[in-house]
Design brief:
With 229 residues, the chain is α/β, with parallel strands linked by helices. The protein has one domain: Alanine racemase (TIM Barrel, Alpha-Beta Barrel), CATH 3.20.20.10. It is 37% helix and 19% strand. Strands 7-6-5-4-3-2-1-8 form an eight-stranded parallel beta sheet. Helix 3 links the parallel strand 2 and strand 3. Helix 1 crosses helix 2.
Length: 229
């Protein structure tokens, strides 16, 4: 396994998929999903040119940060965030991708206020209506985003989604296209503290469809690092 070769091939595939939606691969932020990966492999991925690293687990994030694993690129939290672990994440990452409730958003805002910072976040949307996934109902987005204004210490930077596992490619494409339409519709509405900069969707098994349907941020693990042991 050569991580630099994997990233190089991945960039080519991203560029091919992006051109299907009239963009270039450079328009897509490549987040290396580093769950269970050791520090030395994360550093290899950074040297190979990934744009950011994304951790799923708070304890791993803290340990690897202390070891200097993520030096040189932004760090995202991409897993489900429990309120009792917010203190270890807010201010420690550049972007929290997985805000799935107003109460979590309020808790993040409170911690960010205590630190005197503004925390960037994405709102996780359950576009596939999958009971096994977190995220808010896409049809509740307008009401949700309309309640963001009082949270002066957060900044919503876009949306994130995870699709149900093992869907056929046409269904993946349909749901990604649906998510992209929500993203575009929201861009046309003015909400305080809301900026539709990022649409994070697509992982190793479906990133090509996600990018071709409009994703500008993808979260990739096994295609970079190989299958987890």
């Amino acid at each position: 396994m050569c991580i630099s070769d994997n990233v190089s091939r991945l960039r080519e595939e991203i560029d091919t998929a992006a051109r299907q939606s009239g963009r270039a691969g450079s328009d897509v932020t490549l987040v290396a999903a580093t769950k269970t990966q050791p520090t030395e492999l994360i550093r290899e991925a950074i040297a190979a040119g990934v744009d950011a690293c994304g951790e799923n687990r708070v304890q791993e994030l803290a340990e690897k940060s202390q070891a200097g694993a993520y030096g040189g690129v932004p760090l995202h939290f991409i897993g489900h965030l429990q309120k009792n672990k917010i203190k270890k994440v807010v201010g420690a990452v550049d972007l929290i991708q997985s805000v799935d409730s107003l109460s979590l958003l309020a808790a993040i805002d409170g911690e960010a206020a205590g630190q005197g910072i503004t925390q960037d976040v994405l709102i996780q949307v359950n576009v596939g209506n999958d009971s096994a996934k977190f995220g808010i109902d896409p049809y509740a987005l307008d009401e949700f985003l309309g309640q963001v204004a009082p949270f002066a210490h957060i900044r919503v930077r876009g949306l994130m989604t995870m699709l149900p596992f093992s869907l056929p490619i046409p269904e993946n494409r349909r749901l990604f296209a649906k998510m992209y339409q929500f993203f575009i519709d929201i861009r046309g509405i003015s909400y305080d503290n809301v900026y539709m900069d990022f649409l994070s969707m697509g992982m190793s098994g479906d990133f090509q469809e996600a990018v071709s349907e409009g994703a500008n941020m993808i979260r990739i693990g096994s295609t970079i690092f190989g299958d987890r042991t």
